[in-house]
Specification:
CATH superfamily: Metallo-dependent phosphatases
Number of domains: 1
CATH architecture: 4-Layer Sandwich
CATH class: Alpha Beta
Number of helices: 13
Helix content: 10-25%
Length: 446
């Protein structure tokens, strides 16, 4: 694959990493092959950048939103329209941080109630700052993407709902000694979400982003889930952005969209799907099926009901869980499905360097993201086609393999069970799409 034309501020490293994952068709990256390429920018959870408490006006050491805008400007500068290779932006949700309502009217009408939970402090308390500060800043970032002519899809994560609250049917165990508490529903209670009016105000199908765009091809309930098409590498790709723990009605809509675009290679982005250990987790304090089973599915049910039975879906992208993971598995037709997790929201070295006191997860830096995102470099003309995956910081202007401090800064709180080498290999690797031609034909085939 020829070297990407992306505008790197630092010289490209010659290091190539091989992911040591059983059953995964991965190889060291190779720049020696010639052929057309394009890139998908996978943007992990941006909530901590736009969080109103992470700005100078609220006493924070920096305006974290500047990191978010910088990231979007870098992506735009490397768009195909600007002579770069970025053909599509795939968000994985949690675009902003706070709710605006204490409980959504729909679930309240169902008899579901909210209960205070001291374990979460005021983290999920509603605030008008989400509409005044966070949503407008999120829109500002995507206006930069739209101006560069990059198609994109945004699925809502749990923080993008109007309300996120502890339900009264599953209260926290306040009688248990704090040192014995575990991150299970029986100990810390059960969170639920509802309402997507804020999300639709930014990313609804009638928003300025999508209303007149031919590449925005379908929406569910006004855009709570959506579908886009982009052309690159000799193929037309279908992208589905599905709401978190999507229910059966959403999956039926998704199957209908796929049926209207037969034979089209399909990418699915959603928020909560894969853990940093490469597992689809059931249960936990954000299992929506325990509150509203009729309108939600677990990640495993999403795989069983839609992903494994829809042969056009070859790639799944997700966030939510802090860290990274990659798995390859087979669908019901025996074809490969590649699933990739990336979420860097706990990374707060930029704030530390600016003098922000510690106070984040487990007493560490306040999470921001440090400008890190995933770049998926496709080469569809090689045989077989392949994706070279890189992790890049638009703030540090370095790839993960180029930063000597990378492991020391980030591994212990994301992947403490990995060696230094394994942690780096999880960020920079190549996926060989062994059955892509069999499923989707040659580049340029009609």
């Amino acid at each position: 694959m020829r070297r990407s034309k992306l505008v790197w501020a630092a010289a490209a490293s010659s290091a190539a990493w091989m992911m040591l994952a059983a059953g995964c068709a991965l190889m060291p990256m190779d720049d020696s092959q010639d052929g057309g390429t394009f890139t998908i920018a996978m943007v992990p959870d941006t909530q901590n950048y736009v969080d109103f408490t992470h700005q100078k006006a609220h006493g924070f050491a920096i305006d974290a939103s500047e990191l978010y805008i910088q990231q979007m400007e870098w992506i735009a500068a490397n768009a195909i329209s600007e002579g770069g290779e970025i053909a599509f932006l795939a968000s994985v949700g949690d675009t902003w941080q706070h709710p605006s309502e204490s409980i959504d009217p729909e679930h309240e009408a169902m008899g579901i109630g909210r209960i205070d939970n001291p374990f979460f402090g005021k983290h999920f308390d509603p605030t008008d700052q989400v509409r005044a500060v966070e949503v407008p800043k999120a829109i500002e970032g995507y206006e930069i993407i739209a101006a560069a002519g990059i198609p994109f899809g945004v699925p809502p994560g749990n923080h993008d709902y109007d309300a996120m609250y502890n339900v009264d049917t599953h209260p926290p165990n306040l009688a248990k000694p704090p040192e014995k508490l575990q991150m299970v529903t029986e100990d810390i209670g059960l969170l639920h979400v509802g309402g997507l009016d804020n999300f639709l105000s930014a990313f609804g199908e009638d928003s300025p982003f999508f209303a007149d765009e031919s590449w925005y091809v379908s929406a569910f309930k006004g855009g709570t889930s959506s579908a886009q098409i982009f052309e690159a590498g000799g193929y037309s790709f279908l992208h589905l952005a599905l709401e978190m723990q999507a229910g059966d009605q959403v999956l039926e809509w998704a199957r209908g969209v796929i049926a209207k675009h037969p034979g089209m290679p399909t990418i699915l982005s959603t928020h909560d799907y894969l853990s940093p250990r490469g597992k689809r987790l059931a249960g936990g304090f954000l299992d929506f099926t325990l509150v509203d089973e009729a309108n939600h599915n677990t990640p495993q049910q999403l795989f069983d009901k839609l992903i494994s039975t829809s042969d056009q879906i070859f790639l799944v992208l997700c966030g939510h869980y802090h860290g990274q993971a990659f798995i390859q598995e087979e669908n019901t037709e025996g074809h490969a499905v590649y699933t990739m997790l990336a979420d860097y929201q706990d990374r707060g070295q930029v704030g530390v360097d600016a003098g922000q006191p510690l106070g984040g997860f487990m007493g560490g830096p306040v999470g921001l993201g440090d400008g890190w995102l995933r770049l998926l470099h496709f080469d569809t003309e090689s045989n077989p086609p392949r994706i070279s995956v890189e992790t890049y910081s638009t703030y540090y202007q370095q790839k993960s393999s180029e930063m000597p401090e990378y492991v020391d800064r980030y591994r212990d709180h994301e992947q403490p069970n990995m060696t230094d080498e394994q942690f780096l290999e999880a960020e920079e690797f190549e996926v060989v799409l062994e059955d892509f031609r069999e499923r989707f034909g040659m580049p340029g085939d009609e």
